[in-house]
Amino acid sequence: MAQGVLCEVNSCTHWAEQNKCTAETIFVTSHVKQEVTEAQETDCQTFEKK
Predict the structure, then answer these.
(1) I need a labelling partner for 10 at 20 to 30 A (CA). Which of 4, 21, 31, 48 fits?
(2) Does 37 reside within a domain?
(3) Over the stretch 10-31, which tens digit does the pLDDT of each residue have?
């Protein structure tokens, strides 16, 4: 499990109590064409629906 990674998306397979992420690795991508400057401009590709 990735250490210290929190996630509020409780519909994800990797979500655990206290908003902990149980994924072995995390893959985050950008959904904007320019350089990312804010968290809202990123997406978690590790998400798997429960």
Answers:
(1) 31
(2) no
(3) 999 999 999 999 999 999 999 9
